[in-house]
From TrEMBL:
GO terms for molecular function: glyoxylate reductase (NADPH) activity; hydroxypyruvate reductase [NAD(P)H] activity; NAD binding. Belongs to the D-isomer specific 2-hydroxyacid dehydrogenase family. PANTHER family: 2-HYDROXYACID DEHYDROGENASE-RELATED, GLYOXYLATE_HYDROXYPYRUVATE REDUCTASE B. This is Glyoxylate reductase.
Amino acid sequence: MKPCVFVTRPILPGPLERLAAIAEVRVHEGEGLLSAAELRAQVTGIDALFCHLTDIVDEALLEAAGPQLRIVANYAVGYNNIDLDACRRRGVAATNTPGVLTESTADIAFALLLAVTRRLVEGDHMVRAGEFNGWAPQMLLGHEISGKTLGIIGCGRIGQAMARRARGFGLSLLYTQRKPLAGDLGRELGLEYVSLDELLEHSDFISLHCPLTPETHHLLGRTQLARMKREAILINTARGPVVDEAALVEFLQKKELGGAGFDVYEHEPQLSPGLAELDNVVLLPHIGSATVETRRRMGEMVVDNILAALQGRRPPNAL
Ligand code: GLV
Ligand code: GLV
């Protein structure tokens, strides 16, 4: 009997064909999310789960799947939706898609930085609303980014890709994470290692690129937001719960922060009350990795991981 793979949401066609050669592939074709109960009902007896960052993979789901489940393969680099300990206890491999979405996510972070500082979205709305009545010397004044300081929180692949972009735009760079980068990498990228507090106090722009873990949950809470410069702009393309979103809304409302560019939300897809009413924010619907090229590569990577597990090999991106 062929092994069975369940895919929780449809992906770009292509990668699944390689799986279909050796496995029965079932794709949930419906619009939107499966609830936890629907997901549990779908996974019974499967050998591999092809899941998305919107699927919670916990003890209950693994239990519902049963003992023949070999792999939970996440179509994302972030894997805070997966209970890794529960997977380990059951001998189920878990994998992610590192590296292939680095450039696309850094592009979105940089695009948000430019969009907020130069008020791109407000400008677009103005033109479409027929309110552009010709050039004016004080219309939509934003702020320059060159010569300013960008603080990068979490300097893995995506944080480093953000640093490379920022250097090209003439920004000075600070970063913080648990340990400084190894070897000469930090120096080569023009990055200075500082504490979180120093970064918060000295940065004009702050961009989050750390994973969501118990340690980074609300890494930026009220106390940290209060340390930031009043004009500072916060960019989040990592995970929503890294920021206390309700506190952020308050700081933005009181003009105790300059602005924000968000691609991810604490209670995604819900927004904290007040966030969408602010004019100093740009809000995107979690599209950091949403390019045709990246999503193709992510699909291939998930399939490589599943094929390895089904063939008894160690998946290349085992966590
Ligand atoms: C996207 O958010 C990812 O983690 O891949
Ligand atoms: C992404 O691939 C990262 O680890 O930053």
